[in-house]
Each structure stands twice: as structure tokens, then as C-alpha cells.
Amino acid sequence: MATVKVLPPESPCPFYVVDVETMCPAPDVMARLEEEFLSEWEPGGNLKHPEKIEAKRLADLEKFRERAALLDEAPVAMVGIMFEDATFLLHGLETAKATWFGNRENNVTLEGFSGEPALMKAVSLVFGEKTSPDWMGVGHNCYGFDLRRIRLACVRNGLRLPDALRVVMTEEEARPRFFDTMQHFCKYFGRSGEIMVSQDKMLLRLGIESLLNGVATGGDVPGLLARGKINEVATKLLADLVGVRDAFLKMAGR
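-> C-alpha cells emitted (254 positions)
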């Protein structure tokens, strides 16, 4: 893996970059979710033949299974948080043996915890110790995925939301600041009417070299996590963090 410079100088404001990886729900949870999916499933359209209806049902069930790691019940498996002076890659698969690649350059820490509750407690502690109200959180599609996943995992495990992720109750209350690189790119750099763009395509169009070439994709992650392949997922997560950071700084004019 290429040497990564953690943070270019002259950042526009104090900020951190966050990214989340999820894994498929446990087998018993998945069995319940599949049962619920099938009980609510309807063929739609003009399908009349029983064989075609059954084929459609099975095809839709397979698509549901393929997206299992995106369900609300999917556990948060790894969280990456990149600051100016340190990068934390925290995962909930303590039993997986992680042998860090490289020589831990640039204060990158890879640490495992026993399950989602302990992982989210560690994530909350990092946010509490490293951020303050004037900091900005940065992520790609963070409003659509990462922030929601961290919040949901915190509250379902009985944890108080860290101040950086708190829910605003009134319009007068100061809001935690976040910069969604996907939303910002589509609004100011994308094509007319464009509302979504993958991180890879955004980096390409911004002229930023992605570190994801030859690295696991998002679709690979659930399978890698199921096999305990922590290093592969950590490599992908670190490359994501670097790409989002570089896109943020470039779009901010730095």
C-alpha cells in the first residue's frame, strides 16, 4: 500500500473524516427478516402464472439477501475516524487476528473490540475526546448512511449519543456541522440534476488519484468480514478516508 499523508497543511477548519462499514445480521436475525420480507412480498405487475410468480419471489429474496449489510439491523462492524494527528480504525471482531500492514505510519491505529456494543462505546469515546463544537465532520454520503448507522448502533446498544452526533431538538439549537462530499459535489461540481455519485467517480472527475485500485469494494466487505479478513477491510476503509479528505480539501479550494 502506498504511503499516505494523513493531512495536508492549511485545512479550511478543524475537521475529521468518518466512514462506516457494516456486516450482515446474525443468522437468526436474518431468518426473521427474510420471513418478514416474504410475508409482505407481492408480485406486482401482471404476473399470473404460478411458476413466474415463484421465480420473481425467489429473485427478489436473493436481492434482499445481497443487500443484507445495508439493513437497519445490520451491525456496525468497523468505523474509521481520521483526524489531523491520528487515524482510528476500530472494529467489532475482536477474535479476528489483525496483523497491521506497513509500519503504522502516520499514527494509524487498528484496534478490535468484542462486538458492536464495545465498538460503539469506543467510537463514542473517540468523538468525546477528540472533537469539540467547532469541528466539522466530513463523509461521502454521510447523511444517507454513515451518520445514521453510527447513531442507530449507539442508541440500540444503550449508549448516549456523543455530542458530535447529537440530534437537534429545536431550530434555535446549534447544530453539529457536517460536510457531505457527495451532496456538495453534485450541487456545485456535478451535472445538472445529478443527486448521487460514487466516491470513485467523484475522485476521478475531481482529478484525484484513488487509492482504491486493487482494493476491496464495498460489495466485498460483508463477505470479508464474515471470514475475519480485517486487514483487507481496514485497507479499504483507510483508502476511503483518504479519498474523502482529499475531495473535501479540493472542493474547499485548498
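The first helix runs from residue 27 to 40.
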